[in-house]
Amino acid sequence: MGFSTDAIHAGQIPDPTTGAISTPIYQTSTYAQEELGVNKGFEYGRTHNLTRQALEINIATLEKGKYGIAFSSGLASIQAILGLMKNGDHTVVSNNVYGGTYRLMELIMKEYGLDFSWVDTSDTKNIENAIKKNTKIIYIETPTNPMLNLTDIEATAKICKANKLICVVDNTFMSPYFQRPLGLGADVVLHSTTKYINGHCDVVGGMIITNDFKIHERIKYLQNAIGAVPSPFDCWLTLRATKTLAVRMKQHNANAIKIAEYLSTKFYAKKVIYPGLKSHPQHELAKKQMSGFGGMISVDFGSLDNAKKIINNLKIFTLAESLGGVESLVSHPASMTHASVPKVEREKFGLTDGLIRFSVGIEDAEDLIADIEQALK
């Protein structure tokens, strides 16, 4: 089936009891058992929920994966992935990832005996050079947050296979509409479904997708054992949102291209970073492994003072954490999403105090450009 058809129908059938088209919200913590040891396949809400199951099938289908496992947040998903490791194991990680990923790995899980190497994975030679005898996972985020650096997924997956490692890709920024890492050889795909997949700034969630049964079996066990599962209502909201994922992503992309091109003409924009621009150093890789360029733009305006003036004068773009909603948002990564990353580390990969991250929504592009124009003036 085509993407839009799968988005609307995968994992969803009319309710067998009433014929309801919309998947019901199975708001229950437990299930009646017919007799001791006999049930209908459902025992307890943390372990089984039909609304959650429908969402897992839906997103797995969109990623062309066999298994989907839903979590209460993107970070809960990452925590489960780290559950594939044991004390003493090592992971190679993209050096510019979401600040919460850095905090979880470097400031928390390191204390439990896990080891992490932070490298510029946009050059796959750095990945090969960072592999140790105890390496278990190569974890890449592409495009990265907020510098929008790209990593060659296919090349990374080949390195992983040659070294018997697990290739994990955070695909949050692209969504399965624009990028499908499993098809490029990745073993695991991760999403903060809070972002583009839900796209309405009203749900926090995460999802892991894989084709590997052993990985699925372990992650599914951790989902139940740790219990960081999304509520049935959150699953229902996200399931409703995936129906419009294709049309939303098209508009995010179209708007972002116009705004990135507009900003590229302004002398006060010291650096405009967007994979859809020919000026992006990995523009050709973007065209190779992505079918679109997404709705995220990062711009360095030269100083914290400039960044503050622009952010404080925007009217349609809302200053807020998160991204990927239909509403346009703006953030200051150095003091918001990446505040937990030491300044010296941020500056190594170009995240300056003058950098602003735009999450371009699906409003009229002309209005968004006019808003930026008046803020710059």
Describe it.
With 377 residues, this protein is α/β, with parallel strands linked by helices. The protein has two domains: 3-242, Aspartate Aminotransferase, domain 2 (3-Layer(aba) Sandwich), CATH 3.40.640.10; 245-376, Aspartate Aminotransferase, domain 1 (Alpha-Beta Complex), CATH 3.90.1150.10. Helices cover 37% and strands 15% of the residues. The protein contains 14 helices and twelve strands. It has helices at residues 3-9, 50-62, 74-82, 99-108, 124-130, 153-162, 175-178, 213-226, 232-242, 245-263, 283-289, 304-313, 343-348, 365-376, and strands at residues 67-71, 90-94, 115-119, 135-141, 166-170, 188-192, 206-210, 271-273, 296-300, 318-319, 329-331, 355-359. Strands 1-7-6-5-4-2-3 form a seven-stranded mixed β-sheet, sandwiched between helices. Strand 5 (166-170), helix 7 and strand 6 (188-192) form a beta-alpha-beta unit. Helix 1 (3-9) runs antiparallel to helix 2 and helix 12 (304-313) crosses helix 14. It starts with a helix and ends with a helix. 48% of the residues are buried.
